[in-house]
Amino acid sequence: MKFLFTKGFIVLAVGIILLAGCQSEESSEEEADVSETESAATETENASEEEEEHEDHAQEEEHEHDEHEHSHDDHDHSHNHDEDIYAGYFEDSQVEDRPLSDWEGDWQSVYPYLLDGTLDEVFEHKEEHDGEKTAEEYREYYDEGYETDVDRIVIEGNMVTFYEGDEENSGEYSNDGYEILTYEAGNRGVRYIFALEDDAEGLPQYIQFSDHSIYPTEADHYHLYWGDDRGALLEEVTNWPTYYPSEMDGHDIAHEMMAH
């Protein structure tokens, strides 16, 4: 009887041990499955985040590219717009009044450079690229346009000083509006007009600026008309004395002209 009881106890103990081992193995397998599931979920989440980052980066690049193209288009539009105005094609509504300070500075006539041959390369350049006249014909045309005895003009505030040889005359000028002119070729121009405030010997009653611009901007050169008859000056289209900054030499002026 004691032997049977002992044997039964041994069998029961072995069974308990085996059951515990099975449960431990099942637990390990479940933990492994959970770990694999969590790992897979983490990888999926990381992949999703990387994809979103890639999409965001792609969208940023596309946006930057669009902005660059938009900026480039704006630049081209502005450039073409300025070229049209320079050539004399614009709307009346675009024209604005301008102060005398737009032409402030120390200016020299280009006529001496035509006479000494410095501007010959300009006329040769125009013959090659425009082809409307020969270089000699261009020279004759600009000789009539540039001709003047006033070789220097200084503008400070409202004071304008004309230099003609050893003689100089100064006077104050005030804004007298502007006039829009239409030329035979179909293009147009704007004359900005200033009137002498107090009569002075040797000074014109009116000066009229033309520099291819139609709103306030600092001039880099200009054509100037002057005289005592405001209306008659507006009819003058063959003689337009032209002035560039006095610090420029003839070579610089010639290349500036060819750039236009």
Automatic annotation (TrEMBL):
Segments for region (Disordered): 25-82
Biased amino acid composition, Basic and acidic residues: 55-82
Domain of life: Bacteria
Start and end residues of each ZinT domain: 82-260
Any one Gene Ontology molecular-function term assigned to this protein's record: zinc ion binding
Keyword line: Signal, Zinc
Matching PROSITE patterns: PROKAR_LIPOPROTEIN (PS51257)
Keyword tRNA-binding part of the UniProt annotation: no
InterPro entries, per the entry: Calycin (IPR012674), ZinT_dom (IPR015304)
Acidic residues composition bias: residue spans: 26-36
Signal peptide from the UniProt entry: none
Listed name of the protein: ZinT/AdcA family metal-binding protein
